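Researcher: Please translate sequence to structure tokens.
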Amino acid sequence: MIRSAICGVGAALPERVVTNAELEKIVETSDEWIVQRTGIRQRYIAGERDTTVSLGAQAARRALDNAELSIKDIDCIILATSTADHTFPSSATEIQRALGMTLGFAFDIQAVCSGFVFALATADFYLRCKMAKRALVIGSETFSRILNWKDRTTCILFGDGAGAVVLEAIKGKGVIQDRGILASKLRSDGRHIEKLYVDGGPSTTQTTGHLRMEGPEVFKHAVAMITDVVNSCFNIAGIGPEKLDWFIPHQANKRIIDASAHKLGIIDKKVVITIGEHGNTSAASIPLALAVAVKDGRLKKGDLIMLEAMGGGFTWGAVLLRW
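Model: Translation complete:
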């Protein structure tokens, strides 16, 4: 059977680093409070020349280099983002142009913080159905452009950045030892829209709008939703959490990450946490964390990895894969 395996990883971050100390000068907050409540110490903020497309294209180039491939080897680009450069065309097609890709197809996926998981699962379907042999899956965000910098409940949480992977169709035997994606589970529930949303849009206000969030409500639902899809992937694969080598969650809040891992029975040393350095980069957070774990040598060939995320909508999902 066909499996979809990651063969390259890349990341891109803006130059500007904003520490908690700098935010203390903008809103009523403190470094101690932010670290205690979220685990965030700093975040990267896009400069004037940085956009979702420019960061995404940079991450994609690095993923191609890491895979020792060129854009001519790619059949499909799927970009997960909530902060597209334009209402249309899709930012994926703009990245396609930036990379010099003239064949194949490209499109955006909008599932907020769950976007990369949704995009990875979607690319897996295209590869297994033989509509593509290799795909670039990108998560890129410039959330700083939709924040109200006077709202201390949201502006302290988010950062900008991009991460990308090259996904390649390979032959598998249909067993848990196969390399590549082994299971995925996606969910959404529109009843929770008002808990995390942006109060603008072309069809409603004709403005971009600002991010709005009911933090306690999001936290209340997050752990249950995350564990739901992760356990579903375990069940599909016929394994338990003890078989897992690495848990790479969406980097939204360290307390959510810790609570989810504890409920799932995943020990601390198996959890990859980068929120302290990046903040919440929405759809970019998982591929950014992947890139960190690859760079520092934590991920080894054959490792079993669980990715998971939850975002506005609510959307949530998980992907189990072997490195």
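Researcher: Any highlights?
Model: The longest helix spans residues 215-237.
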